[in-house]
Amino acid sequence: MKRTSKLKLLALFTTGILLLSGCGAAGNQGSDSSSNGRPLGAAEGVVVNEEGLLDYSALSEEQLTALYKKEAAYGQTITVNYTGSLCPVALPVAKYLGFVEDEGISSFEFVQISGDAARDALASGNLNVAIGFLSDWLLYYQNGEEVVSTLALHSGCASAAVLSDSDYTGFEKGMRIGVAGGIGGIFHNIGLRFINHDGFNTDDFTWVALDAGTLLAALQEGQVDVIIASDELIYNFVEEGYTKVIRSQDYDPDFENEVCCSLGFSKDFVEKNPVTVYKITRAVYRASKWLAESEDNRAQAVDLLLDKQYISTTREMGIKLINLLHYGFGTGEMIATTNVIGQEYKDLGLLPSDFDLSNAEEQFLVKYDLTKIE
């Protein structure tokens, strides 16, 4: 189902800026943002189209394969993070439905690692591919970490909840908000965005950092009034009758069309292996489009994850959670979300006021034309 939002309007606005700035063949015109003189993620011969996106269709599959065979990553095992959740579902789908094999990638190995550890392993070169929160990676990009995003994976995937018998129906000034993880961590920052959208200031609330395993107890014991965490935690509490959701990235109109998680690589890996990165991204995008096609496909994906023991939830809950998310996002949504979050982070003081979003777009995002991928 196609959806419209202010994100898409911003994507069109961004495209307009790109059109005004001019474009052409990679390495001749446009952004010179990588060490080889071509835009980030562009292999030799790739064209920058009139929308400012990398058009790999300028290369035949034979040319692409020939370039791929020259890269350091060719024939090597590609290590991919596995988080134990539904978030990275497009990656195992890409592997087990054959999309990765179609790209000529012979070894695609999952490593159980997530969060900050996955991002750090990616930056250090100990992991080739990872899924993570786009909003989290943007903050660490500005701190100098060399992690870049190539693909918007899905919407979601965090919510705020109160006790099921609570009178609260939304955020109210004076609340004590419990966030999974630390202050300054991803769920705290999502909470800041929730209250910012609702017209509150940061100091209107007391923020409490909690271990994920203590969230429900803290809520039940009155230590906090509301909790913010991943949907897989929150909706299990809802299913068990303990909580109700008052704010969600999944279906609230101001968040439902945003990109939550994205596919990431180290910048160094992208510059040394642009065709490998494109091939991995193309395989995962095909998986994401397959997930977007139908509820039956998403149910099959849950069955796959359960069969491979990637998740420990029930089939019923897995299907409920996976259907909260939107898949098949294009590059426009990734660009738009980056700019929306970046501006909000500047407004909230999480990014410096002089942070250059246009430079971040060129250095933090690999911007492919995905429209010709079937």
Give the SSE map.
Blueprint: H1 6-21, E1 47-48, E2 54-55, H2 61-68, E3 78-82, H3 90-96, H4 99-102, E4 108-112, H5 115-124, E5 130-133, H6 134-142, E6 147-154, E7 158-163, E8 176-180, H7 186-197, E9 206-210, H8 215-220, E10 226-230, H9 231-239, E11 243-248, E12 261-266, H10 267-272, H11 274-293, H12 295-307, H13 315-322, H14 331-348, H15 357-364
Parallel strand pairs: 3-4, 8-9, 8-10
Antiparallel strand pairs: 1-2, 5-12, 6-12, 7-10, 7-11
Helix pairs in contact: 1-14, 3-11, 11-12, 12-13
Spatial ordering of strands, largest sheet: 9-8-10-7-11
Tell me which CATH architecture of the largest domain applies here.
3-Layer(aba) Sandwich
How many distinct domains?
Answer: 2
Largest sheet: 5 strands, mixed
Relative helix content: 40-55%
As a whole number of angstroms, the C-alpha radius of gyration is 20 Å
| SSE arrangement, N to C | HEEHEHHEHEHEEEHEHEHEEHHHHHH
β-strand amount: 15-25%
State the end-to-end CA separation: 17 Å
Structural class: alpha/beta
Shape: globular
Could you name the ranges where pLDDT drops below 50 across 5 or more consecutive residues?
A: 1-32
Given this structure, which CATH class of the largest domain is correct? Answer: Alpha Beta
What is the CATH topology descriptor of the largest domain?
Answer: D-Maltodextrin-Binding Protein, domain 2
So, the CATH homologous superfamily of the largest domain? Periplasmic binding protein-like II
Roughly what is the average pLDDT, rounded to an integer? Answer: 88
How many helices? 15
Q: Please tally the β strands and state the result.
A: 12
